[in-house]
Write a structure and sequence with these properties.
The chain is of the alpha/beta class. About 40% of the residues lie in helices and about 5% in strands. The chain has 2 domains: about 5-230 and about 310-340, no CATH class; about 230-305 and about 355-395, no CATH class.
């Protein structure tokens, strides 16, 4: 094997000093790689992803019901999933038929609605993977050690799943030893992009060849995401970013909301001063901001309220596992078994004080019905793709 292919072992190794997070040296690929670079990458990745001779029965059973219309690969063709060589935890009882059926139903729903002839339409539905700009793929976190790709969705347990990915990738050391307990990871490191292998790092290292490499990993690795009732996710985002002291979100978003949709033409410059004066955008102001056409003319939606179909591209990426916050504990246990990593890490206990679906009516009480209907239309893709019922009582008067 050429030396440059062998050196690609760096794809899965970190150069970290004890107890300190250090980003990898992902330099942009030089122009001297030539056309043979793609074949070199293919050769390395295929060797690296070889895994066991036969994929585990669990991964076979958890694979997608078929290839989506826009996802890569031939329809109906089953690809062998990457399963790394390691000791697996032995379970005395198999994953229940109910849990397997739950996943099959969720994946089938996405598959059906992503067909070009389905009745559901939303922006970007029918584009191909190659049509997605590089910057829109940065929510895909890759773990080469275990063959996993996670698309993180803010306000859907993503902090704990990022903890899990740090443990699995061994990307953070303390006293020269990788963290083993997700809850031991310092909070300031969890969302540190230098600790997560994202598509942006592929781009910096391999340039125009990065898309080709990502396609190989998307075909071979096990891909998952977690979702949540779209309206409840918005409530959670508002509570977290605008009801708590957050200087960044106050300056970037709250000030705009206050100027446009309230009587504060000259709001305080700092969030501390604003809170001291009892000034903050209302939930109604937040909804007005989301519905205002000017908002996305100024900048794209922030990731905390951007639609899941724009963050994770479920019609272009054939996810192997679709988890939900509403069934987080069961889904997390199921997923870690599917990934064959439940011998390495356990999902942290759920935080019980999260925003509940039953609160929706109270939060939307002061939102006009017409605005509620427009908001539903804005997030209809997420409601439908992931099986959340249309909140009819919330959308209609009487």
């Amino acid at each position: 094997m050429p030396s440059r292919v062998r050196s690609a072992e760096d794809l899965r190794k970190r150069t970290l000093t004890p107890g300190k997070a250090t980003p990898r040296g992902w330099d942009k690929a030089g122009d001297d790689k030539g056309s043979s670079f793609l074949s070199d990458i293919d050769a390395f990745v295929n060797q690296f992803l070889e895994g066991t001779n036969e994929p585990s029965q669990e991964v076979r059973e958890e694979s997608s019901p078929g290839t989506m219309g826009n996802a890569s690969g031939e329809a109906g063709k089953r690809e062998d999933k990457y399963v790394p060589r390691r000791e697996w935890k032995i379970h005395l009882s198999p994953i229940s038929a109910e849990m397997k059926q739950r996943q099959a139903d969720r994946k089938q729903l996405v598959h059906d609605l992503c067909r070009s002839n389905s009745t559901l339409n939303f922006p970007g539905k029918n584009r191909t993977f190659d049509d997605i700009p590089n910057k829109e793929l940065d929510h895909l976190i890759v773990d080469d050690r275990h063959g996993i790709i996670y698309c993180y969705v803010p306000k859907v347990a993503c902090t704990n799943w990022k903890r899990i990915m740090i443990v699995l990738s061994e990307s953070l050391l303390v006293n020269g030893v990788p963290y083993q307990d997700p809850l031991d990871i310092p909070t300031e490191h969890i969302h540190n992009s230098s600790l997560h292998l994202t598509f942006n790092k592929f781009w910096k290292r391999y340039g125009k060849f990065s898309r080709h490499l990502m396609k190989i990993k998307l075909k071979k690795y096990t891909k998952f995401l977690f979702v949540r009732d779209p309206f409840v996710r918005l409530i959670s985002a508002y509570r977290n970013k605008f009801e708590q002291v957050n200087e960044e979100f106050y300056r970037r978003f709250a000030v705009v909301m206050l100027k446009r949709y309230s009587n504060y033409t000259d709001p305080p410059e700092s969030v501390v001063d604003a809170f001291a004066a009892g000034i903050r955008p209302s939930f109604s102001n937040f909804i007005q901001y989301l519905l205002d056409p000017q908002t996305e003319k100024d900048m794209p939606f922030n990731e905390h309220w951007k639609q899941v179909y724009r963050l994770c591209h479920p019609c272009q990426i054939d996810y192997d596992f679709v988890g939900k916050l509403e069934t987080l504990d069961e889904d997390a246990e199921h997923l870690l078994r599917v990934l064959r990593v439940d011998n390495i890490v356990q999902f942290p206990p759920s935080y019980r004080n999260r925003t509940a679906s039953s609160w929706e009516w109270d939060w939307f009480a002061n939102i006009p019905y017409e605005s509620r209907r427009k908001l539903y239309k804005l997030y209809e893709g997420d409601f439908s793709l992931f099986g959340y019922p249309k909140p009819e009582k919330l959308l209609h008067d009487g």
